[in-house]
Amino acid sequence: MKNFSSFFLSSALLAAVLLMLNPAAAQAKIWRIDNNAGSPGDFTTAQAAHDAAAVAVNDTLYFNGSGTTYGALHMTKRLYVFGPGFFLTQNSQTQAAPNHAYLDQLRVDPGAAGSLITGMTMYRVYLFASNILFKRNYVASSNHAVVIGDNNQLVGSYTPSNVLCVQNYISTTNGYRALWVAGGCSNIIVTNNFIHSNNPGWQAVYALSSLIFSNNTVYGILETNSTDVTNTYLYGGSLAGGSNSYHNNIGNGTQFPAGNGNVQNQPIADVCVNTGSDDGLYQLKPGSPAIGAGLGGVDIGMFGGADPYVLSGLPAIPAIWSFSAPSSGSGASGLNVNIKAKSHN
């Protein structure tokens, strides 16, 4: 009982929903990946779970939190991948078990089109497949962090379409790019992310393809091309690229041109609470100039818009954030278990 996991219940709930919505999902399996000592997981490494999953029936991989890595994951088949989230000790009501699920590298090739990856922690990500939802993940790297497409720039020629990069926390160091979008990609949607380079003179975003870029919080050079940048807070760094337009953004300096709803010279201490967890500090403070200043009257930044950033990247499934049980019970009195759960849409 002490090894009880929040994902144990969540996987059963998700399976029931899938069966009701899609009879074909009855063929799909749910695999539990857990490398903690004594845990009854189906697999202990990410790649072994992937390789055992069926092709094109939407198997689901649930990763339990762990203090050690699950290795690299090279996806060549469509899967739903769920982790427990991140910064789990920094924010309240997250997971009863506070460890994250860590991948050394994630590579999603075209055969994995239609996949979902959420709640994971990773060092490096390559998204080469179309129709991908990359949501609520934490990527922190001393190399290029998230690469979408690769038009013969790194390892090959990939120009995916319909890639949604939403509600992620992406950070890089050493002059590398936090988010790199190759040329030739289409319908790449980047919304409600935190995107950070540790130096304002380095590229946080480098996009050679046109993007839908809205409600992000960015530190570093924001280089886009043929993109309408909207509802974004650039709290350090500058703009680059060509044929862009800028509407209803805020900068800590004069990065965004005056007019079109843009606001200049707003330091982070005036815009955000600037205290708390690593992601919570970017929530808007009372009286912030970003409140209601976006297109359509929404808030500017990662916590604004129709699909705001979710603290700790908790996946959109129920999570047990408190679990307690005695070390023993009896046939007469049973075992009194106390559980507190919360949904995260």
From TrEMBL:
Q: Does the keyword Signal apply?
A: yes
Q: Which domain of life is it from?
A: Bacteria
Q: Where is the signal peptide?
A: 1-28
Family matches, as SUPFAM superfamilies: Pectin lyase-like
Q: Does the keyword Transcription apply?
A: no
Keywords recorded for this protein, A-Z: Signal
In terms of InterPro entries, this protein maps to:
Pectin_lyas_fold (IPR012334), Pectin_lyase_fold/virulence (IPR011050)
Q: What is this protein called?
A: Right-handed parallel beta-helix repeat-containing protein
Task: Give the species.
Answer: Hymenobacter ruricola
